Amino acid sequence: MQTVKMVVTGPFNAGKTEFIRSVSEIDVVSTERKITSDSERIKKTTTVAMDFGRITVDKDLMLYLFGTPGQKRFDFMWEILSEGMLGFVVLVDSTRPETFREARSILETFRAYAPTPYIVAANKQDRKDAWEPEDIRIALRLDQKIKILDCVATKRGSVKNVLLELLYSILAEMEFPVV
Amino acid sequence: MPLKGNLQDFTITQLLNLINLANKTGALSLEGSYGAAWVYFREGKLAYAQMTGEEANLVSILHQSQKLSSSQYRKITEHTERISDKELGLLLINANYFSQQDILSSLQTHFIAILNRLLNWVEGFFSFEPDQTPPEDKITVRVNLENLILEGSRQQQERAILEDEIPSLDMALRFTERPGVNIRTLNLSTAEWKVISYVNPKNTIRQIAQATHMNEMEIRRVIYSFLQAGLVEITKPVGATIPNSIPSHVQPFASGADKEERKSIISRLIERIRSL
User: Fold this and answer.
1) In this complex, how many residue pairs, one in chain A and one in chain B, have their CB atoms less than 8 Å apart?
2) CA within 20 to 30 Å of B258's CA: A46, A165, B9, B97, which one?
């Protein structure tokens, strides 16, 4: 069985868990652990918060979706998560411009870990105070070549669309690698 | 129109300063990795504060401040389930349990304690909604913000020194190999001894803080004192492992797969996701 992974990242409360939950065939596993006061067990109960979901492709292939912890205090896990990923989705809460700077910083960090294709999903587009994706592009200083898509993480169709666009980008980069 | 932003851009002390100088009335909502909080101001003065996950009713606050014994607390709670804080306050005053001043000073201490904790928040988001007033049934106070702002500025300076000395909480600690230093003869507080018991290159400072229920500032202060005393030194943590529940067999995509095979994988993924 071959397994591949994609990473869903973004500031905390951007909707990463909902995003994964919408397409995962298993309940999203949250791995946040509370540390006990027992010093012997401190490593066993390390707080390493992340979510993951799974999509079985066929009997030989499995896709894992990893949601990174949004809080900066867990950023040491990002590098581990990014290792060997197909690509990543940067989820942005379109209604909270105060998080855009953080989204930009997360995006740059992940780009530095792995130069894989990525896509930006402007989440919560069903809300009336949501910024337009093209306005978010300006705020995040995204190049025109980078795809930024409407997204409502609670809707499966919307999440499917984002994942498909990321896969198309991965395929395109295989055909025409960026030099 | 609310004023919104990131606490990395505007510190809570700066926000308090603004509210104080502009004599603002309104609600400041804060959201961070520690939880959420709501602080209300009236004409530039602190009026009310509440944090998520904490009892905010008058009986609980009086109990927490040890003005009510546990049995009194139980008794009052049983009989006053649907009574608002204002009504309960009047009842307690009329029954000669407390004076008005007792109640107000307990609330004042409680709200200031919340704000002092919030001054430690350096990450998260804020939103200030002008002209929002505290819930109708709550008793409010009037506390000048000047002292809180001074305390906030002092903490900010202290934080800068501590962060300079201990830049990352994801590092670990180990004892220095200085012969002749016996930590058992040192005069340490209970909290400091607890931290000492966790000193091990396997434990990051952040984990020690969580295990000892200290916030970032508190753990930094303790470790700073250890560093100054030459008891410990900062070291790289030994391995950051993924918990068992995470599949550890996810293979790097590029390894062992040629271009055609990789294209085939992507095509299969596309087909599968289309069919969801």
Assistant:
1) 134
2) A165
